[in-house]
Amino acid sequence: MEIGDVVRIETDKGVFEGLLLPSIDENVITLKLKNGYNIGILKENIKNVRVIKKGEKPKYELPPLNIEKKHKKTVSILSTGGTVASKVDYSTGAVHPSFTADDLIRAVPEIADIANIEGRAILNILSENMKPKYWIKIAEEIKKEAKRADGIVITHGTDTMNYTAAALSFMVNADFPIILTGAQRSSDRPSSDAYLNLLSSVIAAKENIKGVFVVMHETSDDKYCLLHRGVKVRKCHSSRRDAFLSINSLPIAKIDPFSKNIIYLQEVERSEGSKKVEINTKLEEKVALIKVYPGMDGEIIRYYVDKGYKGIVLEGTGLGHAPEYVFDDIKYAIDNDVVVIMTTQTINGRVNMNVYSNGRKLLNLGVIGCEDMLPEVAYVKLMYLLANYSLEDVKKLINKNMVGEINYRSDFKAYGGNYGL
């Protein structure tokens, strides 16, 4: 039997007849029943299978696009996994997964009015499978694309998009905008946010700005998108379309995808139009991010030290604390030349280890407090610093603002994501 066939499956729980669909689990058969519902049947429970009718394989013959290249800026869209433009045949479940400039224009035709669009896939992974070596790959592809693009949009799964945005912020110095975007809901769903996120990203990518940014919905409504700095943004909800918030900072800008207008909310570095790009892809991968919690076993810290790790980022409680019963383990790490830095798991607010005795004791041990950095940003920054600087310089640079990752004063108007826009 093949995808699209009508099949009859007998199990101990009954007989099921329907269209055979693609399945993400090799141990499960997925059927679309006559009533329109899909069901999954474990292969081990199947007693008999019979093909009732062979299915016709879908053919996609898309009309040619004759889009004239006008005197507009060029935006390159690089895909790291999945596809923004996907054609789903709901009778068979088959998907047309190609990713080209033509596919993108067919999916979001308005982007062709904004810029000349180029597009290609550079990776095909789920974002939870992202690794530092893929960050390096993306940085290298950005450098290649700079020869023809005035701005770059990177489509990315939302689960780890803020990690990638932080990594690119440190590794890539480009005189043009690099925009990461994704979708909380897939493009074939009526409630998808993919359309407006991509449209808003192309609008931002042709702006006269430089740096790494994230563009996602402002609210759950289809009204505006926000442009976030790549080192100040976090995914704060698992499924809402407005999941991404700037932390301890206002967003850079508010984007109206319908009028194509951008309202800047804070200053941003402007591009000189040179298309220059420099990359430094040296990363020390032996850096750990450890969450502090009641009852934690300090052996986890010693484990990383004994495995040769060079840095540890602690995601501490409150103003930057850890339980006293792991102090000896922290000292063990520092005595072995492991850089230990402290962030906070509270998301909003700053680290201040001088307020309580616990924090002061940690400082005396040699822990470095990161006053204003998200744990994942501190994690990526420490990887970058350890690969490029001496141990003493790393300790000096960890609290120096390099790419906008540190605000020396928190913007409390942004607390809780209520920007008051």
UniProtKB/TrEMBL annotation:
Residues 1-52 form the GatD N-terminal domain. InterPro entries: AsnA_fam (IPR006033), Asp/glu_Ase-like_sf (IPR036152), Asparaginase/glutaminase-like (IPR006034), Asparaginase/glutaminase_AS1 (IPR020827), Asparaginase/glutaminase_AS2 (IPR027475), Asparaginase_C (IPR040919), GatD (IPR011878), GatD_N (IPR040918). Residues 75-256 form the L-asparaginase N-terminal domain. One of its GO terms (biological process) is regulation of translational fidelity. Keywords: ATP-binding, Ligase, Nucleotide-binding, Protein biosynthesis, Transferase. SMART domains: Asparaginase. GO terms for molecular function: asparaginase activity; ATP binding; glutaminyl-tRNA synthase (glutamine-hydrolyzing) activity; transferase activity. Residues 286-393 form the Asparaginase/glutaminase C-terminal domain. The active site is at T83, T158, D159, K235. It comes from the Archaea. It catalyses: L-glutamyl-tRNA(Gln) + L-glutamine + ATP + H2O = L-glutaminyl-tRNA(Gln) + L-glutamate + ADP + phosphate + H(+). Its EC number is 6.3.5.-. It is an enzyme of class 6 (ligase). Allows the formation of correctly charged Gln-tRNA(Gln) through the transamidation of misacylated Glu-tRNA(Gln) in organisms which lack glutaminyl-tRNA synthetase. The reaction takes place in the presence of glutamine and ATP through an activated gamma-phospho-Glu-tRNA(Gln). The GatDE system is specific for glutamate and does not act on aspartate. Belongs to the asparaginase 1 family. GatD subfamily. Heterodimer of GatD and GatE. This is Glutamyl-tRNA(Gln) amidotransferase subunit D. It comes from Methanocaldococcus villosus KIN24-T80.
